[in-house]
Amino acid sequence: MQLIFEKGRPGRKGANLPKCDVPEKPLQELIPARYLRSEPAGLPELSEPEVLRHFINLSRNNYGIDLGFYPLGSCSMKHNPRVHELIAAMPGFSAVHPLQPVELAQGALRLMFELGEHLKEIGGMAGVTLQPAAGAHGELAGMMMIRAYHRERGDTRTKVLIPDSAHGTNPASAALAGYRTEEVKSNAHGTVDLDDLKKKATSECAALMLTNPNTLGLFEKDIVEIKRILDDVGALLYMDGANLNALVGLIRPGDMGFDVVHFNLHKTFTTPHGGGGPGAGPVGVSERLLPYLPVPTVEKSADGRYSLKHDLPRSIGRLSTFYGNFGIMVRAYAYIRTMGAEGLKAVSENAVINANYMMAKLKDLLPLAYQGPCMHEFVLTGKPLLKETGVHTRDVAKRIIDFGFHPPTVYFPLVVDEAIMIEPTETETKETLDAFCDALAQIVKECRENPEHVITAPHTTPVGKLDETKAVKELNIKWIPPRGEG
Question: Do the beta carbons of residue 413 and residue 183 sit within 8 Å?
Fold first, then answer.
């Protein structure tokens, strides 16, 4: 084989390309023999329609928010507006290079700066970093700043307090930041037990990591007293922002006394959720933690130009190779600008209304874990149903799939036996909420009349009920033929 590029051809008229000779050699000389096949690859012979149908049918087995309702407690599975996807795909955003000179990335930097300002206002915080690539990454960043704050004062505190209803990432993040964790009990109302907190809030305590509203969907009404208890021992107050969808526009974490809050852009600001990323977990801080923000920070000068500032000697350092997941920031920024202050407030109000509507419809079907109005989510318990029928909460969750809904969160928080946590979000209609409540009522009826039918669910999926315990211990990822195919 010989390729010769002669003057003027190929290429545009008048191209003067150099001559390029590529000598022909046998494959055996170009590729070592041990890498060559001894026989043709056994690839299937398929037509284009067959290939197309195969992948379309696979896609039909996926479940997403575009197909149905996700009552997934503590995860705020919100609709992701398509217009935000179009905006994020605009060449000025999608084609920006992380090493591009700041002079050529002013639009991107302006968006980042303004997003940070919006989050500061929403959270009532003094400063924000957009760098963390997930909520848990934001937790770690917050705990690292708390550690830097104490160390600079020569204060080597050793423990972080975690409520017993907390998200599992909280103790993990605290431990990764070098702290041991100590659990704070819930009281009879499902909120922080102040007496237990007072006993455990000692001079060894660096911070309390608190979700408000908490994972039971309850607002911590004693938050001012909680803050006072921590201040008395010089500890800081961290807010897990996973449940912020109930608060935006109504109340600000900074006004409650929080020193740190992380924002889950995928839970509260409509960016894509799940699949391991990309994500974003910006962190807001109070005035006393400003010096420890990660570098670089996005700054705006008096002449309106934007830059990345690296000269922060007390910073905890860089969290990401570059700045973070910019495309996610674009989507969140578009959401905030689209909704405006009143729109964001309406979102929170509707999320709370939807949750309380469902709770009122279901509380006589399955008992509430804790009485009283909820915020954006609530927790039922299937313990009496298990005792009466022998049907576990996990069986009920599997049966819900047959009705076309994604299962709610189950067995969490751990303080509730046979927990069923339900969060509708503001984007669901009354008709959808009613349909889910009707489905759950039908399943509870089946538990009493035909429990085996619930225990063996789901019945409409390509793959039936799996042995989850065995699957965890003996992970074996392979193709399982759908029912009826072997």
Answer: no
For 147-164, b/e burial (b = at least 16 CB within 10 A) is bbbbeeeeeebebbbbbe
> Nearest-5° angle of CA 85, CA 86, CA 87?
90
Q: Are residues 192 and 308 in the same domain?
A: yes
Strands 409-410 and 419-422: antiparallel
CB 169 within 8 A of CB 262: no
Give yes or no: residues 321 and 361 share one domain: no
- Alpha carbon 253 to its chain's center: 19
Residues 160/205, Cβ–Cβ less than 8 Å: yes
List the domain range (segments joined by +) for residue 432. 348-473
- Given 268, 303, 338, the domain boundary residue is 338
Q: Which of 442, 367, 440 is nearest to 397 (CA)?
A: 440
- 62-105 confidence digits (pLDDT tens): 888 889 999 999 889 899 999 999 999 999 999 999 999 999 99
Question: Do 387 and 325 share a domain, yes or no?
Answer: no
Instruction: Give the domain-ending residue among 289, 315, 338.
Output: 338
Q: What is the pLDDT of residue 75?
A: 87
DSSP codes joined into one string, 299-355: EE-TTS-EEEE---TT----SSSSS--HHHHHHHHHHHHHHHHHHHHHHHHHHHHHH
